[in-house]
Amino acid sequence: MSFRGLPSLLRSGRYFFHVPLGSRQLQALHYSSREKKSTSYVQHNGVNSSTMNQNSTSDDALYNLYSPEQQSAILQVLNTASENELSAIKLLRGRKSVNIIQHREKYGPFRNLHNLLKVPLFQYKTVIKVCNFILNPSEKLERKERKTQDSRSPLKLVKPEIERDRLETLDSIVSFVIGTRKIAWAHVDRNLTVRDWQQEECVRFMKGTYLPAVYLEEISSVVSKIPEADFYILEKNGLSVQNANLFPVTLHFRTVEAMLYTLLQKTFIQDGQHKVLSMGRSTVGKHFGLMVGDSRTSGMELVKQFLLQSVTQEQPRLSFPQDKVVRYRNLFSSVTQNRSEELCDSLLQALAFYELLIRNKTKAVCYN
């Protein structure tokens, strides 16, 4: 029997009955469980006068919590599922599923739900949660789906989260992408017009022992050229801190991020308002269909399309200053295209910010 192959009685959730952890019935089960643990050990099949009342109290509590049909469905799973199938229930992973199998082998099938309290590691709350999950396994999936939907809320795409009214009144943003030897930025207003777009070489990055004074000089030089904007958006890359080989690069990115947060957040100490935000690199990649598995491919061809459309279409997706289009297109010539990824990504991040958070476009149209 596979967990997915449980009787239709379980799969449909038809007999689902959720038990609140703070209910009176559950409190009664808690008290009876405490009384049971305070007595001397009694064999699973043994009954004597000192434990009869306690067992009866717990049995009554569980009996009141679940209908006979529900109890039968739960016991069917507990008595027939293999260790692997039991492990499919998150609350039974690890030692708990092993204990259930060993208990069955030693004492035989569970005759009632109260027997679960005799299994090591099973407390009264655990019993209720396991029973509820067996009766309605879809509830866990539904909660997960709701959580996923909440995480897709536009306001959750940037960190720290910001108020909707601040988005509605913003005029422009500056989008930053950090490289190992450069910092690129794109200044874009809410009409999706590119006001400024350039990158700065930082030749002293990642040399020596990451001297703070060197980083401060390089980053301060960049910040001095950045125009005023309502928000500054930093790319949050997905490098794992647990990958030792990537540690030097990760340290570099985090150092630059910290300094940009500090130098750009000029009024935070006065007004407490965040102006510097982080946006996930994969979020931008998914928006433009650039993800291949967990990796993001180049968006350079997409940016070239934006530049072309800005002079060939009446309502382009992005508008560029007409006197700068040629210069921008030359940045992505075959000779220099391998050196312009950060520049390209800063523009894509700015566009994704507006389309996801301002215009609420959950999926952008990718041009061929």
Structure description:
By secondary structure, this protein is of the alpha/beta class. It folds into two domains: about 5-150, DNA polymerase, domain 1 (Orthogonal Bundle); about 155-360, Ribonuclease H-like superfamily/Ribonuclease H (Nucleotidyltransferase, domain 5). The chain is about 50% helix and about 10% strand. It is built from 16 helices and eight strands. The strands form two sheets. The protein has a six-stranded mixed beta sheet, sandwiched between helices. A two-stranded antiparallel ribbon has the order 7-8. Strand 3 (about 180-190) and strand 4 (about 195-200) form a beta hairpin. The protein is elongated and about 85 Å long. The chain starts with 7 loop residues before the first helix and ends in a 10-residue tail after the last helix.
Short description:
With 368 residues, the chain is α/β, with parallel strands linked by helices.
SSE arrangement:
Blueprint lengths: L7 H4 L12 H15 L10 H17 L2 H13 L2 H5 L7 H13 L16 H12 L1 H15 L6 E2 L4 H5 L3 E7 L3 E8 L4 E8 L10 H12 L7 E6 L10 H18 L3 H4 L4 E5 H7 L3 E2 L2 E2 L3 H13 L12 H6 L10 H18 L10
Parallel strand pairs: 2-5, 5-6
Antiparallel strand pairs: 1-6, 2-3, 3-4, 7-8
Helix pairs in contact: 2-3, 7-8, 10-11, 13-16
